[in-house]
Amino acid sequence: MSDSTHDDHDTKPTGLKRWLFTTNHKDIGTLYLVTSLIMFFVGGSMAMMIRLELFQPGLQFIDPQFFNSLVTVHALVMVFGAVMPAFVGLANWMIPMMIGAPDMALPRLNNWSFWLLPFAFTLLILTFFLPGGAPAGGWTLYPPLVLQTGDSFPFLVFAVHLLGASSIMGAINIIVTIMNMRAPGMTLMKMPMFVWTWLITAYLLIAVMPVLAGAVTMLLTDRFFGTSFFNAAGGGDPVLFQHVFWFFGHPEVYIMILPSFGVISQIVPAFSRKPLFGFSSMVYATASIAFLSFIVWAHHMFTTGMPIAGQLYFMLGTMLIAIPTGVKIFNWLATMWKGELTFETPMLFAIGFILMFAIGGFSGLMMAIVPVDYQYHDTYFIVAHFHYTLVPGSVFALMGAAYYWLPKWTGYYYNEKIGQWHFWTSAVFVNVLFFPQHFLGLAGMPRRIPDYPTQFADFNMVSSIGGFLFGASQLLFVWAVISSVKGKQKAPAKAWEGAEGLEWTLPSPAPYHSFNTPPKVD
Amino acid sequence: MFIKLCKPLAFTTILMVLTIILVPEAQAAWELDMPRGVSTLSEEIFGLHRLILIICTIICIGLFAFVFYTFATCRKSQGVKAAKFSHSTRAEIIWTIIPTLIVIGMAIPSARGIIKIEDTSGAEMSILVTGNQWKWSYDYLNEDKFFFSSLDKASYEASRRDSGIDPTTVDHYLRNVNNAMVVPVDTKIRLLLTSNDVIHAWWVPELYVKKDANPGFINEVWFEAIKTGIFRGQCAELCGRGHGFMPIVVVVETQERYEQWLAGDLKWDSTAQQLVPTNQNPTSTDTLAAL
Question: From residue A118, how far is each of A35, A80, A483 by CA, in Å?
Fold first, then answer.
């Protein structure tokens, strides 16, 4: 195909049709990102209701069953609706530009994998209005409890199936694009770190999403077709589900964090004006984390009753993860060391990520120690741990990525002042919100309870206040995004002084098709 | 810029400290750490917890200090020029090996701990603990003692929505039961855990015991209390609507009083919070049907 016919593709349909039928990686990336922002606020409003009920001891506002539904759907929405699609959106926007390709390899598949999401979330959110209410067994869907869900049970299962199918297709697309569409001269070890981490993440997705699909299908047949996979009375075992679920679930948490590592590895060198330290060890560390993630799943299940050998093995495996994760953090610090640092919003979020993800990592290491994990397990200590890795972890990385690439996406800088305010309010309140939860957990407050003994009242109130303020600060992000879309200050092709990579060779905003002629990489 | 970075951090700390001081219920416990516990293993496990907490805190402080030192010395506004180095094999080997050694150092005492926790041999008595939605039942094996233990009436009434009762006026709100589990002190007790419906988890922080109660299977766990007293916990695995409302109360008594309780001469009084003689007029209005 000649270049002139390609140029014709730049005339895109307008209105609803453009978005419904789009096969363009940038349009689909935008759809993913906007959807995930909406789901972030949907899941966030559920979190606000949870913190409101926990503001004081006693039941003030909501029924315990509805509380359990909120806990369950908040997690599902945040994991599958906010964090994962946001990273897929980033992958869609950035991978073709970063490897010098015109678009994703499989554009129609790309369209389909996005458009499954709205249907999946309609099914999921609809369950709040069905008899018996929304699923209330926790996002981990443990039987037999989840089998007590009312009419919404099949909705839950099919929503998970759709989300899984969407993720698998997205992952296939990313692998095929990276493997086949790199510009001439871009060898694997020359790929930007973000592309590397997504390549590894995509393999994780393909490996584990079918496992989740299998697990929920077994739940479905247990409920409706008389099988007894998880029912001891029929020869099954409820703990089997936990093994299958966490075989998916543990790689899943890395699916949510590895692309963040990639984002941070792009931002930190750019604002340190210095190349990423230890590129190849970063790649190997990411690959080791991904490999280890498959063989440590039962550390989520130490209290279920496990042979000593199993406990020892899963403890040691889990502790090993600290080593490659440490390597990554040390490499980022070495990148900043003796650099030429400036602190624009993306860099602030990246630094916030490194410091607070480290806190989440250390509490994770503590939980690997089985004898003490017996005390931490299923308490607010765990809640604090995974929120530290996911909120100032993944979410901060996503915010940093958005601020970093917004000038490339829209062609205009965001309002830096709003960005700075957004960072500082988020960074302060996220700690007011989650740090006291460590104390609550250690003092003995179990997770997933709508009401608590009065000795936990004070820290819960502090945590709730932090929660409301953190939630409110996220509105600043919307303001910052709008300020970039409606922008005043035009961004040049290379929007940041120290930014490196092919995406910064394209004009801002990036053209509809990224590279019609592949760039040459030496 | 560095000053600019420090201010909000100081602000966070001050805000947290101020909230701790100023929130009205300042007299209530601001518990920051795990209870030290009263079982034969608790001292060791608590020590392990403190050890790893201290190691992690020290590394974390070092990490933060390094980052802020970098900020203090490597800012563009100071006119520094970026160095060009991008790898150092020696540094990378060092920061792989040191964490490996720390991890191995922590794994050894942990492994010892696991082996002790799992050793249920030599138990002097066994109790079958069964989780139900949403109460526990206790069956003293080889004794004629079986009872259900559910949330006490005062907590139950205060926990209902629009009850108008302030939970802070209820003694041991949500941590009190109508029938407490009574065990003798200095005795190795084996618990057999199972469930009649969904998965529950039996947890008493001060006894350092937490284990799932799985329907159709039996889990084993043991403890030996070294002190008499009343120790409270609650279900730790999401088990439905009443998950937050199935507390556990363990009364550790002398062998003599335990035997009196077993014989029915003493009984748990949830209002008085102690074992009282059975023939005394009851002060509690609790019934099994409280829930």
Answer: 8, 12, 27
In this structure, the answer to whether residues B150 and B199 fall within a common structural domain is yes
What tokens were used for A181? 């569409």
- Angle subtended at Cα A518 by Cα A512 and Cα A522, rounded to the nearest 5 degrees: 135
CATH of the domain at A364: 1.20.210.10
Q: Which two tokens stand for residue A364?
A: 């994770």
Residue B77 located in a structural domain: no
Domain membership flag for residue B12: no
Residues across chain B: 291
Mutate to test the interface with B, among A455, A460, A470 (most CBs of B within 10 A): A455
What tokens were used for B117? Answer: 């926790």
Residues B103 and B139 in one domain: no
| Interface confidence (ipTM) of the complex | 0.90
pLDDT at B108 over 80: yes
Is A343 a residue whose pLDDT tops 80? yes
Cβ pair B267, B275 in contact under 8 A: yes
Identify whether the C-beta of residue A417 lies closer than 8 Å to the C-beta of residue B4: no
Tokens matching residue A353 = 């990520």
Q: A437 to chain B: nearest residue by CA?
A: B32
B158 lies in the same domain as B243:
yes
Does residue A155 form part of some domain? yes
Overall average pLDDT of the A25-39 stretch: 96
**Alpha carbon distance A282, A325 (integer Å):** 9
Residue type, A46: M
Residue A8 forms part of a structural domain: no
Instruction: Clarify whether residues B247 and B139 are in a common domain.
Output: yes
- The answer to whether B209 and B108 have CB atoms below 8 angstroms apart is no
DSSP strand pairing (B209-213 vs B125-132): unpaired
Say if residue B54 is in the same domain as residue B157: no
Q: Please tell me whether residues B49 and B160 are part of one structural domain.
A: no
Residues B147 and B216 in one domain: yes
Secondary structure class of B121 (helix, strand, coil): coil
Q: Taking CB atoms and an 8 Å cutoff, what residues of chain B touch A442?
A: 31-34
The pLDDT of residue A516: 86
Q: In this structure, what DSSP letter does residue B225 have?
A: B
Give domain status of residue A14, yes or no.
no
Q: Is A239 on the interface with B (CB under 8 A)?
A: yes
What Å distances lie between residue A437 and A74, A379, A462, CA to CA? 18, 9, 9
Q: Is residue A17 part of a domain?
A: no
For chain B, say whether A472 makes contact (Cβ under 8 Å). Answer: no
Roughly what angle, to the nearest 10 degrees, separates helices A193-224 and A153-180?
150
Closest CA to A388 of A355, A350, A419: A355
> In terms of residue numbers, what domain contains A217?
27-505
- Please check whether residue B74 lies inside any domain of the structure: no
Query: What DSSP state is assigned to residue B187?
Result: -
Q: Which residues contact A409 (CB under 8 A, 6 or more apart)?
A: A26, A30, A93, A484, A509, A510
What does pTM read for this prediction? Answer: 0.92
Q: Using an 8 Å Cβ cutoff, are A299 and A386 in contact?
A: no
CA distance A393 to A44: 16
The pLDDT tens digits of the residues spanning A447-464 come to 999 999 999 999 999 999
State residue A209's pLDDT score: 96
Which letter does DSSP use for residue B248 in this model?
E
Specify if B218 maps to a domain: yes
* Residue A305 forms contact with B (CB below 8 Å): yes
DSSP string, B195-215: ESSS-EEEEEGGGTEEEEE-B
For residue B36, the chain A residues in CB contact (below 8 A) are: none
Q: What distance in Å separates the CA atoms of residue A119 and residue A112, rounded to the nearest whole number?
A: 11
Minimal C-alpha gap between B100 and chain A (Å)? 6
Q: How many domains does chain A have?
A: 1
Using alpha carbons, select from A460, A466, A450, A334 the residue that is nearest to residue A392: A466
Residues of B in contact with A421 (CB under 8 A): none
Counted domains in chain B: 2
Domain enclosing residue B52, as ranges: 35-61+95-119
